[in-house]
Amino acid sequence: MSTDLQAPGHIADRTGASDDARNERIDVHHHYTAPEWVRWAEENGVAGRDSLPPWTRWDEAAALDLMDRTGTRTSVLTVAMLGRFKEAAARKESTRVSLDAAGALVARHPGRFAFFTPLFLDDAELSRWSVSHGMDQLGAVGVSARTSTGDTYLGDPALDPVMAELDERAAVISTHPMQVNTTGAPAGVPPFVCDFLMDTTRAALSLIMNGTLDRFPRLTFILPHGGGYLPYIAGRIEVFGRQLVPAVDPGRVRDYLHRFYYDTAAPMSPSATPTLLAAAGSSRILYGSDWPPTPTRVVTEVTTPALDADPALGAQERGHINRGNALRLLPALAPA
User: Are 41 and 90 in contact (CB under 8 A)?
Assistant: First the structure.
């Protein structure tokens, strides 16, 4: 481990405003499938190791190695569980195993890991338990939620009771698509290429159109993959907002866009960055690796170097994106 990574206070301005913070990144998009959960799933016939996607074989040493190679001081984990459950008790136990493993990992490596506790769009009771256990007992820094589950998107009014409780906590909600509808997609195009981005865009629009952002002003949502298509179609929403059902006031579209944070997983490029900056500004963008679904080679050789060399970003903007914005959004990540 490098000396820089062992000295979290070596940057004079910890917000990253005067330094590009390439040795002090905070990664808000790190998928974590606990090895303890995989063992539990096999022992209980929930899922077999060989039947799970390769990215679920999360390894602690490999994660730390990637973080050191990319100058990542802290990774905020999204806790993943891919089993199918018929009984509520089994689903709750699955969540407990995963959360307890995440809590133990954070305790083993202070300052290197933090985590979001999962929200379940189809199970309010389990969501409440997960928030209480994850945040109150284990110290989760926020919650994570799928952009959609079946036909339910994040802005569905049926989720208001849970959103109200999260609003009281001023919670940060990290979002991500999973098992999205790919009906009509061209053969050979994986969901993560196009459909994930569309699902994220639809979730963001549901939060805007259904008034979730207005009813719960203390909530903050992180959109993955640069917000999907949302920044690109912002002008289109302004032009046609009154034709949506429910309608959107065109004059408020830019305000709504600034209610979201956007991570850098995959969209940062000389063609994409200017659009994201124009829609959100550098103060609303967060570094995200999307590891391990995005392989180590891609993170270390393609996505992270592209961010560092992006001609649209200066040192100040990179400082905000790599570290400063995350510390402002999640102050619990600040070094002691």
Answer: no
Do 79 and 116 meet the contact criterion of CB atoms below 8 Å apart? yes
The closest alpha carbon to 246, from 211, 201, 213, 216, belongs to 211
Residue 324 lies in a domain: yes
Residue 336 domain flag: no
**121: domain range?**
19-183+195-243+270-330
Q: Is the pLDDT of residue 18 over 80?
A: no
Q: Which is it for strands 220-223 and 260-263: parallel, antiparallel or unpaired? A: parallel
Residues, the chain, total? 336
Q: pLDDT tens digits for 204-248? A: 999 999 999 999 999 999 999 999 999 999 999 999 999 999 999
Show the tokens assigned to 160: 């208001």
**Structural tokens at position 276:** 């994201």
DSSP symbols for 29-54: EEEE--HHHHHHHHHTTS--GGGS-G
Give 262-272 pLDDT, tens digit per residue: 999 977 888 89
Residue 230 CA to residue 284 CA, distance in Å, equals 14
